[in-house]
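Course assignment 3, question 2. Fill in each field.
Student: A.L.
Task: Predict the tertiary structure for the chain below.
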Amino acid sequence: MVRSPMRIRITFVLAAAVLAGAAAAVHASQAAAVRTPAQEKTQETLNRVRGELFSGKARPDEAIRTLTDVLAVDPGSAEAHLLLGIAYRSSGAPDLMGEAVAELRQALEINPEFVPARYYLAHIYLDLGRNERAREELQAALVTAPRNAQSLTLLGEVERQLKHPDRAIEVLRQALAIDPVSNQAHYYLGLALLDLNQPAEAIKELERVVQAGEKRADVYLSLGAAYLDANRLDEGLETLSQATHLDPARPDIRIQLARGYRLKGQLDKAEAQLKIAAPQGPASVASPFVQERQVEYERYLELGLLKQQQGQLTAAAAAFRQVLDMEPDHGPTNRNLAEVYLRQGQFGRALDYATRAEKLGSPLPDDKRKLLQDGLQKQGKTPEPSVRK
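Answer field:
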């Protein structure tokens, strides 16, 4: 099964529907106001910057300078604070995330019912792994606008990240009742169904998003990995290859491609993908911070499985130990490491990890248990009761 998300990273999506809703909310509040020529000019500037940010065509550094100038003249503009927060987040600089949060908070101080500010603040908190805070912001937004499909959709994903897939599905179905064609809601619903081990239904949801013309790499990654889990290897490899065309630099896609090639027995191709997935530099916001460690975990796990299959046991053991440094209680990796040590004739070490794997619900297969028992007896050691079964 696909390992749980990172598993699939969450992108800071400037979805057209959400942005249109944000613009409508701002303009509705301003429509009745009579503006001076200076205010009209300021609004024209905000309209331009908003359009550029929402279309993805803006240069964040220029947007930040422009919006800072606007706020120097009109510090009470909630819209300018909102846009500046989005510009900071779009810059890709980790040290500006605090500035992004501060600007969105300032927008809410000016207008506590400004739903778009809460929505984007929740997105940032989700990127930062502060899922409880993200939920708080979305729940507050839904008090103001209870039928806001975008807020419900993101809340569904937050519930999934909080390990509440049943609740996530309930919320996402509420969102889809309001906006049945929301690709984002169908995508998150697919992920929640995967978490509940309902792969057939999950694949239907993800296929629907792809068929609707969605070209986000996340969607292709999720669907490709789900195909691999369902042993639909050719479909998985094809879908993951399409994901690499959408975002060639994504290491998580390369890791899943490596898994697919390994499962197909194409070990050289698998190794090539893992080399591409190796870190090339410091982390960036392009891959949200909480995902960096998970990606490394996935890479070492796949590397260990590949090296084990290639018979490169020393390299396999080193990779599995890296995995256990990050997640000591991962039962399958403890079992895999026991099997590697067993093949190396290091029966004492194999026993340690086999015992741990047994306690974590991932026992050695009967044939390997017998080999370990025989090896320990030859060395004059008494195996643990679980190994003697």
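Instructor remarks: Residues 1-20, 283-290 have pLDDT under 50 and may be disordered. DSSP finds 21 helices and no strands in the chain.
Grade: pending
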